[in-house]
């Protein structure tokens, strides 16, 4: 994310008292994501439904299969499912990653996601087995750096809202959207702070 964009986001978010306190506590966010499309999506598949620590461990093992270099689709295609399973990737996720590699080794390699709208990116990616809205949202946030993504289905975001607004139970989707309105059009940056107050450690 460009520094100018981030500075504008922090200035805007600081106008809301609760978010201002989070910015003062945690400082400026780090949005150094994975800029390679295939690796960003394979990483997000590995991270699905896992804690940040467990996911990072498995992802690092995955990268280790390729001498700690970012793997290319053509390289992943050569890795069999048992090998992926041996490093802690589930059978289902192993199949998803293999399918993703096939996609990018063929038609997916020609798509310029930067030129697509958020909705168009989602429409394209959802066609790939194993990619749902959460993965699309992570791709939009940490690879394309779209500024106003708010993944209401993410448990960390739900917990962050619960903590921030002193709730007893997890919030509804409608409540989350309502409370996030003052953060528009920089809800992506607001999410970074919501994740931080849950574990004090960004999940991505």
Automatic annotation (TrEMBL):
The alphabetized UniProt keywords are: DNA damage, DNA repair
Its GO CC terms?
nucleus; protein-DNA complex
Gene3D superfamilies per the UniProt record, alphabetical: 1.10.1670.40, Hypothetical protein, domain 2 (1.10.340.30)
Q: One Pfam family of this protein, by short name?
A: HhH-GPD
Q: Which SUPFAM superfamilies does the record match to this protein?
A: DNA-glycosylase
Q: What family name appears in the similarity comment? A: Belongs to the alkylbase DNA glycosidase AlkA family.
What's the name of the protein?
A: HhH-GPD domain-containing protein
Lineage from the top down? unclassified sequences, metagenomes, ecological metagenomes
């Amino acid at each position: 994310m460009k520094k100018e964009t981030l500075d504008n986001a922090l200035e805007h978010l600081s106008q809301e008292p609760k978010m201002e306190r989070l910015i003062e506590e945690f400082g400026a966010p780090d949005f150094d994501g994975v800029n390679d499309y295939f690796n960003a999506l394979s990483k997000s598949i590995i991270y699905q439904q896992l804690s940040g620590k467990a996911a990072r461990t498995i992802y690092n093992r995955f990268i280790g299969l390729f001498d700690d270099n970012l793997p290319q689709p053509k390289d992943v295609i050569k890795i069999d499912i048992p090998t992926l399973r041996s490093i802690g990737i589930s059978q289902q996720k192993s199949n998803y990653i293999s399918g993703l590699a096939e996609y990018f080794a063929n038609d997916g390699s020609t798509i310029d996601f930067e030129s697509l709208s958020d909705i168009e990116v989602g429409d394209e990616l959802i066609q790939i087995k194993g990619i749902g809205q959460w993965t699309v949202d992570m791709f939009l946030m940490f690879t394309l750096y779209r500024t106003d993504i708010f993944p209401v289905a993410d448990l960390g975001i739900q917990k962050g809202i619960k903590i921030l607004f002193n709730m007893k139970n997890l919030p509804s989707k409608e409540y989350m959207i309502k409370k996030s309105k003052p953060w528009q059009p920089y809800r992506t940056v607001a999410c970074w702070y919501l994740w931080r107050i849950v574990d004090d450690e960004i999940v991505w």
